[in-house]
Amino acid sequence: MDFGLALGGLGALAGGLGSFFGGKQQADAYGKAAQMALDASAPWRNAGASALPIIQREIGQGFQESPGYQYVLDQALRGANRGANAQGLYGSGARANALTRTAAGLASQEYGNWYNRLAGLAGLGQTATQSAMPVISQATQGQGSAAGAATAGLGNAVQGFGNNLLTLYAMGKL
Fold first, then answer.
1. Alpha-carbon gap, residue 53 to 46, rounded angstroms
2. Which residues contact 26 (CB under 8 A, 6 or more apart)?
3. pLDDT attached to residue 61
4. Which of 13, 48, 91, 172 lies at a CB distance of 3.0 to 4.6 Å from 161, suitable for a disulfide?
5. CA dihedral 15, 20, 23, 25 (to 10 degrees)
6. pLDDT under 50 in the chain at which residues?
7. Which pLDDT score, from 0 to 100, does residue 105 have?
8. Whole-structure pTM over 0.90, yes or no?
9. 3 state SS of 86
10. How many domains does the chain contain in total?
């Protein structure tokens, strides 16, 4: 038996196994990097995701129950009432018109503020997701490449070992 060919075949097999397990470690590291990117962006993605149903459900209505809107509305109406009272117009139609204009203008302004806060929160989630995607994409590609290289390395080693055995067999030394 030609020990050189046999040892060469075993060396190829051992190298292939080393390549396989090294590639597997690298693929696992890429997978962990992708998971870390997901985990790091999760709070912002979750905040944005939780704002979207509120926007969808309450467009045009939910902001009126908010404590901020109620406080500002109460203060504005009190001011309008005091102004009407000071002018002796407390029970008049002019007072009612002033209160309606004040409430409508305030509702429009506060609705815009409320919506912008929710949209900003949703946008925060979108930005976090967009920031994480390139890292996750690169990690996933790296993971696939490393796993493919590991498998190819092992396959090449097994093929080399088999070729050496066939050579020994053909030479009648096996």
1. 12
2. 142, 146, 150
3. 60
4. 13
5. -110
6. none
7. 72
8. no
9. helix
10. 1
Contacts of 135 (CB under 8 A, 6+ apart): 33, 34, 37
Length of the chain: 174
pLDDT tens by residue, 126-150: 777 777 777 777 877 888 787 777 7
Place of tokens 């704002």: 51
Residue 41 C-beta-side C-alpha neighbours within 13 Å: 21
Distances (CA, A) of 51 to 67, 114, 149, 154: 18, 12, 43, 49
Tell me the residue range of the domain where 71 lies: 3-170
The Cα–Cα gap between 94 and 99 comes to 9
* Phi-psi label, residue 173: left if phi above 0, alpha if psi -120 to 50, beta otherwise: alpha
